Input
Amino acid sequence: MSQGITEARLRLAYINQYRELALAILFALALSLRVLGSEVPTLVLVLLGLWALLAWAFVQVSAAALDEVRLNRLEFSYFACELSLITAVAHFGRAATWLALLFYVVTILYATMVLPRRSALWVTALAAANFTLLLAVD
Output
């Protein structure tokens, strides 16, 4: 899936703008629910903040990638971390299982758009393992 570093960066920038928007909305929603009296654990807010920080750091680091291979490695690492954060937010926030599944599916879709096939399959396997862990623990 070699497209050249310029095309890969454009594709990634397009995806990242939606990722950052979704994270901002999710954080604002969780914070609003907490202000309105719902039991949103502090740990969930911290995890959402870490997720946003991870996304921002990924954008900064990926902009410095010199070639597509390095960019793919960074993307894979980001997706692996993101899956762990999704699992932690779903578990500690006592979120509905279908909501966590939605985030797993979005991560898999993003991975299939930006990563080579083999790496995207690894992300899918990681998502399946995280979801299985979430079901087993909850």
User: Anything to note?
Assistant: The chain has five helices and no strands. The mean pLDDT is 86. The CA atoms of residues 21 and 52 lie 10 Å apart. The first helix runs from residue 5 to 35.
